[in-house]
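pipeline: protein-struct stage 2 | run 1193 | ABC transporter permease
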Amino acid sequence: MTNIRELKRKIISFPQFSILLSFVAMLLFFSIFAEGFFSVRNFTGVSRQAVVQMCVAIGMTFVLISNEIDLSVGSIANLSGTIMAGLMVRNGLSPALAIALGLGLGTFLGAVNGVVVAYIKVPSFVATLAMMITARGLSLVYSNARPINELPDSILYIGRNYVMGIPILVIIAIVLVLVAAFILTRTNYGRHIFAVGGNAESARLSGIHISRTKLSVFAISGFCAALAGMVMIMRLASSQPTMGDGLELDAIAAAVLGGTSISGGKGFVLGTVIGGLFLVFLTNGFNIFGLSSFWQQVFKGIILVLAVSLYERKK
């Protein structure tokens, strides 16, 4: 009996227990009442859609753990993806080189955010809001607010094909999740991020370079956003002027639903994955029901507030 009680206590105290239970309940509900929801075809399509959100949410997790926020991830994803598409279609660059340059651009813009926040001491909300506006404007200028189509076949192949029955895009997301989890849980650098977010002064007295650590998490966020931009053009087979709009809100919601603290010092990659999947499958179920996208936003907001309230109460 004691062992059973101890096992029950460990399960309930599992950081993602609430969101995981909610996720399973939601899947069961839609599987019963939403025709076509519980099918291989639907799950495959939704998993592809989840990759974009997963990329930006992982980067956002790093930033939130350090007690900062990044509102520019959607615009950086948009700009990076647009640049990749433009370099391939307009300038004839090879897909590999265009993708490398796009990822480098996203990392650079993230690092710029880090410099402004960590060294110039501009609040991250303001700094990344400015970057969001700037990157969005640059994307519209570069694309002339028009789609960039006719991407190379190799890009379309990655976006539409499988390896051992798993979509290639999903494999990219799995690799990113594993690398992020390893960094945060198995490296000194990961422990430094948690220390900086939990108590910056104590971290400084322990010899951790606060500014350098914060700069690096924004660079990681920028890289993840650029990776999301790459995935979007592979999925859409084109670059769209507004393809990254709203990603920053989805990323924050996924991380917070997964137990990452907006006050810093606490975060879980696994939780972010569950939170991101929860939101994507919730949207998918609502779409099958034919619920208006306007009402979907209302319900998502309510769910987010309830999730944070329950998390704070449990803490």
